Amino acid sequence: MTNQLLDVTADEALSGEVNSAPDNENKGAETLMDIVVKDSLTPPTPGKLVEGTVIGHGKLSLFIDLGPVGTGIIFGKEYLNARDVIRKTNPGDQISAKVIAGENEDGYIELSLQEARQAAVWKEADEAIKTHEQYELNVKEANKGGLILDWKGIVGFLPASQLKSEHYPRVDDGDKDKIMNELKNLIGTKLMVSIIAVDSKEGKLIFSEKNGSQKERQDIIDKYKVGDVLEGEVTGIVDFGVFVKIEDGLEGLVHISEIDWALVENLRTRYKTGDRVTVKIIEIKEGRISLSIKALKENPWKTAEGKYKKGEKVSGVVIKYNKHGALVSIEEGISGLVHISEFGAEDKLREALALGKSYPFTITLFEPKEQRMTLSFKEVEVK
Questions:
Q1: Is 383 inside a domain boundary?
Q2: Residues 103, 179: one domain?
Q3: Second label for 189, Cα 20 to 30 Å away, from 34, 96, 175, 366?
């Protein structure tokens, strides 16, 4: 049997003309081959990222060889959106794109460079933090917290606390309207800035106008190590965290997930610029310092390990809705998810579980070391 199979050519295997093996074994081999061939020829579905080789350019179109699945095309609006990138491509170049439609009437798989291009831009932003690259950008808008800038098609934020002294709004009484008017005077001007924080998931960039040399900054950073507990001053508040000045020329970020063990949604209700806070350094990486406030507090999951177990009935308060269901807190800092599948639809979930109200639940998963818990509303026995 083994020798017979070794003598089979690839053409014979694909044509199905091999009859030397018993029917049941040959059938199994053909089935496996059918699966391999079928999988290799299955067209990619919309939303999938693919890689291919540039074949050539047409009028407002780019053709890409996607191997056995066919030929891709970027045309029309998608071509115009990415024309600055497309013009730099040559036949033979490897390129990544997103499938937006299956084969059209001309037999081409329709592609977009937008998502792949965005990924490249975010990667460049990460690199810019490491190298302290500086950019001259136009101020597009102003708000009470700072300035809005545009970098490579991504809208970024320059907190007022990150402005140089000559641009910082000097308002004696701290009147927000007066601060806003001062910031508006910068609209249309160009500022030299560097990227100091990136959150690609949220689509946010944070800039700073305070640009010291890379060596000067590194000399300051070298004075500190992970585990150091310091006192600093809040210099800026953004949706995803709080900037804290450790000393002149050095700031770190306390990400919103490092503020407290309990859910934190609105940082501006907790902190204001100028507040003094105690923080712990939890990471120093590539010229960035990550800080934590919650690391200085007792981890409630450690004590919860001996208090709760799977299958136990508990009382919990609904504290937030998300696309997966409702987040429920059973004590300060200990929360878990009640999945939307129990209710069938979001409106049904909201009818059954109101924000801020307490209900009985059953713990269906409890992993305190992973700080993970799931709950069930339906599994609670009705007495």
A1: no
A2: no
A3: 175
